[in-house]
Inverse folding.
């Protein structure tokens, strides 16, 4: 079974803190993705990575950065957390031989106070 | 940005009722459509991937149809059960986009099945 894990299920941080959200997949997938989900807006792509050290901006990259030093790990970084970054964050990975399906982690609910 | 719309946003049904909801997308340059089910405290789980006009897919009591010419997909649940309660996500890809599997998601339909 493909497994995508995220470092925390719930996280509470203060405004201005640097926040790291970690995602690890165990199936050697090249492609990994970070989304956020907000009520009424669906899942929106923040960043994705198609290889180690490679990254592309998604639809809402502002206020975020990412790091992919190893194939299995994709980190989302909030350099200076703000209250409008309170959201559910989902990581996903995609195997190269299936062009369509993504496998998701369980999500991290981040609250910035 | 590809616009994918789902309706309704939320739905409450009684156990045993059959229900359906809609995903609409631009019909030009269509490549593939996915349905996911996202239960509380779990990871979104892929239900169907559909690519051809007229596609019909079925998984137990859940089925889906696809009309690429008019740009919509229906998801049907027959005889809803409380364990069907979840958010149902629709997502589409256009041809010619990045090959990295970038998907555009609808807002989701939150289904609650009452015992």
């Amino acid at each position: 079974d493909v497994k995508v894990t995220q470092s925390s299920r719930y996280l509470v941080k203060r405004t201005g803190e640097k926040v790291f959200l970690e995602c690890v997949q165990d199936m050697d997938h090249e492609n990994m993705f970070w989304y956020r989900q907000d009520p009424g807006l669906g899942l929106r792509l923040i960043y994705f990575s198609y290889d180690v050290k490679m990254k592309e901006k998604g639809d809402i990259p502002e206020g975020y950065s990412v790091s992919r030093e190893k194939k299995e790990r994709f980190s989302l970084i909030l350099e200076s957390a703000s209250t409008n970054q309170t959201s559910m964050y989902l990581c996903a990975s995609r195997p190269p031989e299936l062009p369509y399906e993504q496998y998701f982690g369980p999500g991290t609910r981040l609250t910035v106070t | 940005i590809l616009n994918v719309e789902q309706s309704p946003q939320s739905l409450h049904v009684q156990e045993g009722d059959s229900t359906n909801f809609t995903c609409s997308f631009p019909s030009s340059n269509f490549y593939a459509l996915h349905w996911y089910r996202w239960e509380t405290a779990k990871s979104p789980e892929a239900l169907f991937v559909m690519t051809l006009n007229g596609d019909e897919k079925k998984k137990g009591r859940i089925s889906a149809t696809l009309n690429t010419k008019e740009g919509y997909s229906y998801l049907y649940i027959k005889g809803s059960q409380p364990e069907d309660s979840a958010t149902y996500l629709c997502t589409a890809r256009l041809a010619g986009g990045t090959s990295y599997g970038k998907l555009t998601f609808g807002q989701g339909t939150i289904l609650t099945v009452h015992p």
